[in-house]
Structure formats: structure tokens, C-alpha cells
Amino acid sequence: MEIELAKLLKRNSDRVQAVLNILLESPYFYAADNLNLFLFLRRYRREFTEFFKQFYSWTLLIDSKCARVYKADWYNRAITPKNRSLFQFTKRDECLAFMMLLEFFEQQLEENGMTVEDKHNLRFHFGDLLDYSYKRFQELFHEKQQQYTQEYVRAKIWKSVMPELEKYRFLTKIKPPEDLQASEQELIYEAMPALYHYNGAALSRLIPELTAQQDVEA
Question: Quick one: 14 exposed, middle or buried, by C-beta within 10 A (0-12, 13-18, 19+)?
Fold first, then answer.
């Protein structure tokens, strides 16, 4: 029995192939990447969902701004977790920083009255995120407050975390005008729609457990 996407492929081969490639070329397909193809994917969501489920046992997730395919199981056991090309942090403080980003993101959405349905994405200064995370690290590690200075949080934690967040398209750095010299804290970042796919409140419940661990690689 022919699947529905195969029928769609006969009528719209270029667009079907383009959508499939885009979904596999990066972790997230944003509407802003290619609006026409994103709308095509949403229009034929059922057909694409069936294809990924039937052939790969993957789940296709789509909202108004973002699409991704979720793979629950890893089949090639010869590739160890350490060698898999996945978004993941292995150090405790890096994991905590990502959870703090989600907390900060949700707080900023609430303060600005924004949702995923808004046309524009949330933007923020790095300095505001740094201030928020510095205070959170101070709260979590009372006995190590002298270690977790704002400069330590910036240089030892965010310096390694931010490039990963940009690489996997959670954040986009907004290039300042050529005639403007912006400090690191003045840099503006755009929070990409993928952040809506994470439940910050649920992940925050893991913070006490992580805090009790030593900051070593998993």
C-alpha cells in the first residue's frame, strides 16, 4: 500500500525533497528559514508525520514557528554516546546554565507578554542573562559564593555554553551596527523558537539533584 507522502512526492517532488532535507540538515526548521516550505510542511503535516513514524519511528513536532523530528532511540550501538553528534552538556554547571536560560526565557516572556504566536522572537542583552544566572548560582551554592563571581560565571560557564547554543540554533547573536562598539554584556541575542519546545519548569525540578553533584563530565 502506497503511503500518502509518496503520492505527494509524485505531484510536488521538489518541495517534498526540500522539506525532508531541511528537517535533517539541522535540529530545527524555522519558519523564517524558508516560509513557503514551512507552510508546505504544515499543510501536509499528516503525510510527513506518517512517513517519519512508519519508516523511522520518529515523531514530527510542529508549531507556528518551528518544526523538528524527534528520535527516541539510537540504533547504531557502535557509536557511543560520547561520539554522537547531539546537543548535550556533560558538565554540571553547563547543564545548570541551560536550565537557567530556560528560566530566564520564560520569565522574559511573561514580563513582555509574549507567546510563540507573536510575530517577532524575544531579544535580550547578554548582560541581563548573565546577571540572572549569577544570582541563581549564588543562590544554589551558598558555600561557594566567592567562587561563583559574575566574572567566573561569564568566563568559566557561559563562554563555553553560548557557542553551543548558537551552533544548535537556540540563540542567534544579533550583529551590532558597524559604527557601534558593543561590549560583551551589551550584545543582543534573539531567542529562537526551539526554546518553546523545552519545559523549563519541569527541567528546573532537576536543579537540586544537579547541584548536589560534582562538576565533572558525565
Answer: exposed
